[in-house]
Design brief:
Blueprint lengths: L3 H5 L4 E6 L1 H4 L7 H11 L4 E7 L3 H12 L4 E5 L10 H9 L3 E3 L1 H14 L5 H4 L3 E3 L3 E3 L8 E6 L2 E6 L3 H19 L7 E8 L3 H11 L7 E8 L2 E8 L2 H18 L3 E8 L12 H12 L3 E5 L5 H7 L8 E6 L3 H8 L3 H7 L4 H15 L3 E7 L14 E7 L4 E7 L4 H20 L15
Parallel strand pairs: 1-2, 1-3, 3-8, 13-14, 13-15
Antiparallel strand pairs: 4-5, 6-7, 7-8, 9-11, 9-12, 10-11, 15-16, 16-17
Amino acid sequence: MLNDQAQEKSLNIQFLLTGTELMVGDIVDTNSVMLAQSLKDHGAEVARKVTLGDDFDALVAEIEYISRQADVLLINGGLGPTADDLTAEALAKVIGQPLEEHAEALVHLELWCERRGFRLSGANRKQVILPKGITLVPNPIGSAVGFSVVHNDCHIICTPGVPIELKQMWQQEILPHLITQLPKVDKVKTVKLHTFGMGESAIQNLFDQHLADWPKDIEVGYRAASPLVDLKLTTRSEQAEKHLPEWQAKIESLLGAHVLKVSTIDSTTAEILEQPFTVAQTLVELLRQKEQTITMAESCTGGLIASNVTRIPGSSAVFEAGYVTYSNRIKTELLQVKTETLERHGAVSEAVVLEMAQGALDTSGSDWAVSVSGIAGPGGGSDDKPVGTVWICWGNNDRLKTQCLVYPTNRLNFQRFIANVGLDLIRRELLEIKEVPSYFSRTGK
């Protein structure tokens, strides 16, 4: 429990991230980003963040130093089974307590191993050797529990470095308690518009042209997670919140069907906004609601469209089969693309993607299909069909539509963008959207 004096002022919250892999760039730190964004949504900010390698003496010194400044110290990482996981040992040194086998942590680890058919090894057992006197922080999915202790009037919370484990522990165990300890501030409300098909600059241009009188008390922020952009609107007072729906409606009108979903959070809840929401999530939900199915015939995207769909829980209800037909021979054998069509028009052509989509519909019996054939690069282009050229076909047995785009970028970005375009076009069909997507401005010859 934080002391009363800490509750009367802004909390000094600091992060200590541990792991040599973070220091040398083998792992990108996404954990502190998630934590900081969540705290900001609840009216708090991080005062300081430190990253250290697997150095016992440095960890001991930094934990002691931060505990004398901060109200809350969140230590992330170093709770694993290997010799370089030093958090528990370092904290024990700081608080002057011995390490001991924690009975409740051992029960958690035994059950975790039992559910997975693992044998509890000596290395794993290291994860239950914890400082005496700590309080456990449950980990609902991982082997290593978290733990906390108060030292120098600082609430120290130790968490594992695995992002999915940290996120669940933060949302279910840590943040709900921390919210009650935050000083009383004006309610912070955040609305996040998850968008696809328009870049940050295009959205900003719309703002400049149509919303020059945007109110100063509604903050606007962007988060680009290619190929999507999240637009975040934040208010920090009741007065600003009253006007938020009006200005949100104006933005949604400008962006139109490029908005996939809107998420809302306020500082009184412990919800964490999903980052980012995907085109595939939207499409799978729509197909499930309509009890319809989809198939895809892919060449240049190499199965990425199908992968985007199948990584969504519940996608088995809407997806049975997809076809990765890279060579002309396989296009002919699996999808009944005519040899004469390929010879006359080439694999990257309107005629071929039409036959690919129809073949996928016929073979799978699905309600909807999307097919793509293009030149992902870096080689293979020509004057007529430069690198980045792609033909897309989408629709059903009643009507198949086509579009040629040119998206000259690196191979991976090309595949990611085109895969999402294919899914977005089916989303628009299901919603009966007539609006032309802005990415059609990338029209090829």
